[in-house]
Amino acid sequence: MVIEDNPDCQETFQNVLEESYNITVVGNTQEALLLLMDAPTTYTLILLEQDLPDDTCIEFLKQRNAQSFLQNIPVIVITGENDENRCYKLGADEFIRKPLSSPDIILARCERTIALYESKNLVQQTERDKLSGLYTIDYFFEYLKQILPLDMGSDRDAVVIDIEHFRLINEIYGRGTGDLVLAEIGVYLQQVLTTLNAIACRASADVFYVYCIHQDDYQELQTALQTILTHYIKVSNIRVRVGVWHYVERGMIDPETWFDRAKSACDRISGNFTISVSTYNSGLHSKHLREERLIRDVYEAIERKNLRVYYQPKYAIQGDKPHLRSAEALIRWIHPTLGFINPGDFIPLFESNGLIQMVDYYVWKEAAAQIRRWKDEYDFTVPVSVNVSRIDIYDPDLENKFCNILKENNLSPSEYMIEITESAYAENAQGLIEVLDSMRKKGFKIEMDDFGTGYSSLGMLTEIPIDILKIDMSFVRSMEKHEKNKRMVELIIDIAKFLKVPCVAEGVETESQLRALRRMGCDVIQGYFFSKPVAPEDFAKFIEKEKSLWTK
To answer: Please, is 481 exposed, middle or buried when counting C-beta atoms within 10 Å of its C-beta (0-12, 13-18, 19+)?
Structure first.
């Protein structure tokens, strides 16, 4: 588009440019704006006469700065004046001086300006997230590292914003609504970036990072974002969580770690709807450092067998005397410097970062090898159940791994049982059914662990492949104190009978619990009443005692 009121200049530009471009010539900025608003993407360059009546050149440049649809079109100002500062300050990209120079120079300057803008737009497309308009995470961290040397004088915070249960928005309202929510949050964050002296990015599907000047309180930010969310969403458990690391340590810790720490603060309040803003503190810092060490040390722990597999016996209790039925393999970590590490400290951690697959595979192999050793030494088979995490279920090679482990140790599937929590069934029922159906056809026994805590439906129970039902220990331990829990235990035992599968109760600690479970019809129990989980060498006494009963 050529905005020029001089007919001779109009003709010159048409003659020079018409072989390479489609030319629109207008005599004033008002007409130009109407055409541009109607079809802004039609134009790749604007040639603007500076000496238009009533200073309309300057007004046009101001309009361009205010209208986002005009900002992607470069402007070359046609000037006969030496003072170009005002136009530069208002965003002019290039100048062509009067009297108009040779056609080749005019054409080259237009081509160069268009090429530069096309390159700039390409960069912007890759540096900006399309939905939110914020930086992508890679550009965010790159820009952050560039500005750090210039930004050492002010206190700064790392802020993580997470939409809890965001996937429900897509599932209930549709992906279009989910995208609209993300876009609105992006718009709001862009509006407050100047106030917060900040930069921001969309870090992942529903997570945003903000690096900003220190604020004492981020509740106002959380409230504003929650308002955006509730405008579109009426489900109460979908909410905005904010995690903050105040006063980031610049120069000593990389920016990625700042936001890892803010994210850990954000994750700490997941499911806690009484708190919406959480701060990374010394307690979280110590926990974070310990977790980093556990992640770093787990490889060596496996190599040196500091991760040890212990075994807790399971006893069949229907009959005159309890007898050894099987065992459960349970992981224990004896760290060379930290000592005994509670499984509750590392199993959830490894589940969150995927390392649980490596740990589980190690346990599976150790357990199979131990079954083989007991068979060889005592001529006695102790079937062992091993835990399969919900992450393992997504491993396409899961079945082959188990088959190869059995083959390596010359075991049959009946000697090796698979424990999967009820919550895993509830989360991924169809996928799990397909995997476990295939494994059962090969002879593996499937045990549903922690039954009563995972909210699976009774209808689902008739479809899912299980061979053993295991009552969660929380019901067993309190069944003598609370009538509701006792009734729950009785109900689960009745369900097992209906499904025609054995029922196992875990967490049995007293003889009165054992007697009560026997009366209810429970088949098998495990717990401290018989033994805590023990090392393989200590488990041998249970085998020896069981064999001695056979000879009597």
So the answer is: exposed
DSSP string, 519-548: HHT--EEESTTT---B-HHHHHHHHHHHHH
Phi, psi of 158 (to 5 degrees): -105, 125
Across the chain, mean pLDDT equals 88
Q: 278-319: per-residue pLDDT in tens?
A: 999 877 778 878 888 999 999 999 999 999 999 999 999 998
How far, in whole angstroms, is CA 430 from its chain's centroid? 22
**What are the strands, taking DSSP E only, across 366-495?**
384-387, 416-421, 445-451, 468-471
The angle subtended at Cα 146 by Cα 143 and Cα 149, nearest 5°, is: 140
- 195-211 pLDDT, tens digit per residue, is 888 999 999 989 999 99
Handedness of CA 318, 324, 326, 327 (dihedral sign): positive
CB 57 within 8 A of CB 29: yes
Assigned token pair, 450: 């922690």
Sheet holding 94-97, edge to edge: 25-26, 2-3, 46-49, 75-79, 94-97
User: Do residues 114 and 45 lie in contact, with contact meaning Cβ atoms separated by under 8 Å?
Assistant: yes
Query: For 39, phi and psi rounded to 5 degrees?
Result: -150, 70
How much is the average pLDDT of 467-488?
Answer: 89
Q: Are 371 and 415 in contact (CB under 8 A)?
A: yes
Judge whether 343 and 330 are in contact, CB under 8 Å: yes
* CA 476 distance to own-chain centroid: 34
The pairing of beta strand 75-79 with beta strand 25-26: unpaired
Residue 63's alpha-carbon distances to 72, 221, 315, in angstroms, are: 13, 31, 82
Query: 276: how many CB neighbours lie within 10 A of its CB?
Result: 18
Q: Is residue 314 classed exposed, middle or buried when 0-12, 13-18 and 19+ CB atoms within 10 A define those classes?
A: buried
DSSP state of 475: H
- 219-233 pLDDT tens trace: 999 999 999 999 888
**Cα–Cα nearest to 466, from 454, 476, 474:** 454
| CB-CB contact of 238 with 166 (8 Å) | yes
pLDDT tens-digit map of 32-54:
988 888 776 678 899 999 888 88
